[in-house]
């Protein structure tokens, strides 16, 4: 019987393949395939479903296998774990490939959108920029820690640390003066690098029609718009906006039993970077909503009064996620509630 599904456990040099036929029986078991022969091994197969975990290099291999006529699916690693026969075979590459193959055939399985080369290039901008932001935050905290050793305690605000550290620099002994001075110089260098990447993202947003449509939404700027497009493209991998919001971890987890519905905190699953951008945008929406009279601002302020600030922020972030999915999926600009539809 022909092979209908192949699971691949990805690695740097040696890969594991596990294929099954229509009856679900193993028809291809190759626990060690060298990297140089992986494409050759997949090309020898008839068109079938090829499944992999969404890890380093997965999007590259997905594009290569799609060129060979295969249907390719990427699965989040946490969704593969329940299908691993750990009690029977233990944790190894062959067992992982079999688990991936089994998980990919489940009708309710959720898959990761495959990125094209352009999307991955755009995501590189975001990853490097975020890395600079994290380095700057760590460096500012290091400056606070070093100054506290000399009895100079500063507030958490970055602008305060920059200003006060510079003022106290001459009061520090020789080597401490050198160390803190170098840290301040490095912070300034990182500020400039972050501004450079902000300009790159702004240019990218101006050149992309979908990004311009997304920026019509309140709380979505150049960084968030380009990150959304780099992550999900046109959103065709999600059936509805709520599914996209759930994928981002912006919906509450359920703890229901006995016919009684219990909703807990948001799941915080999915991409933490995208979620943080949407939450920051939602905070900006709430900060300006008190001075606006549009339906979304009134809804946000009403929700804040009833449920509190942070619940309103998360709800606004989830609403923006659903609206962003609709804009990308339908390819149309956002029309505010109550506004006339464009002719």
Brief summary:
With 343 residues, this protein is an alpha/beta fold. The protein is built from 14 helices and seven strands.
Please mark out the parts with pLDDT under 50 across 5 or more consecutive residues, or reply none: none
Order of helices and strands: EEEHEHEHHHHHHHHHEEHHH
Q: Count the strands?
A: 7
**What's the shape?**
globular
The overall pLDDT, averaged over residues, is 93
Structural class: alpha/beta
The largest sheet, given as strand count, sense and whether it forms a barrel, is: 5 strands, mixed
State the helicity in percent bands.
55-70%
Strand order of the largest sheet: 3-2-1-4-5
What is the terminal-to-terminal distance?
Answer: 56 Å
Q: How many distinct helices?
A: 14
Domain count: 3
Give the percentage of residues in beta strands. 5-15%
């Amino acid at each position: 019987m022909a092979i209908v599904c192949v699971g691949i456990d990805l690695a740097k040099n040696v890969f594991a393949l596990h294929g099954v036929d229509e009856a679900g029986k193993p028809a291809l078991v190759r626990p060690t395939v060298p990297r140089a022969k992986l494409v050759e091994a997949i090309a020898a197969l008839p068109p079938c479903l090829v499944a992999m975990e969404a890890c380093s290099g997965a999007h590259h291999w997905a594009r290569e296998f799609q060129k060979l006529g295969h249907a390719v699916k990427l699965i989040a690693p946490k969704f593969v774990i329940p299908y691993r026969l750990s009690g029977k075979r233990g944790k190894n590459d062959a067992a992982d490939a079999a688990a991936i193959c089994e998980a990919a055939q489940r009708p309710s399985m959720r898959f990761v959108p495959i990125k094209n080369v352009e999307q991955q290039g755009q995501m590189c901008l975001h990853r490097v920029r975020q890395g600079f932001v994290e380095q700057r935050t760590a460096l500012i905290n290091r400056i606070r820690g070093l100054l506290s050793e000399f009895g100079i305690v500063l507030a958490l605000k970055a602008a305060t640390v920059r200003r006060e550290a510079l003022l106290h620099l001459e009061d520090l002994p020789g080597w401490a003066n050198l160390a803190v001075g170098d840290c301040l110089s490095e912070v300034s260098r990182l500020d400039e690098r972050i501004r450079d990447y902000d300009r790159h993202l702004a240019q990218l947003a101006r050149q992309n029609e979908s990004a311009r449509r997304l920026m019509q939404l309140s709380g979505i700027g150049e960084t968030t718009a380009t990150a959304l497009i780099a992550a999900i493209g046109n959103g065709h991998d999600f059936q509805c906006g709520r599914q996209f919001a759930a994928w981002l971890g912006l919906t509450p987890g359920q703890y229901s039993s006995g016919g009684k519905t219990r909703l807990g905190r948001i799941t915080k699953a999915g991409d933490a970077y995208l979620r943080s951008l949407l939450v920051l945008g939602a905070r900006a929406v709430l900060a300006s909503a008190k001075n606006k009279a549009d339906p979304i601002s009134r809804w946000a302020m009403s929700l804040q009064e009833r449920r509190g600030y942070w619940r309103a922020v998360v709800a606004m972030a989830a609403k923006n996620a659903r609206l962003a999915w609709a804009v990308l999926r339908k390819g149309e600009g956002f029309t505010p509630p109550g506004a006339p539809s464009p002719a």
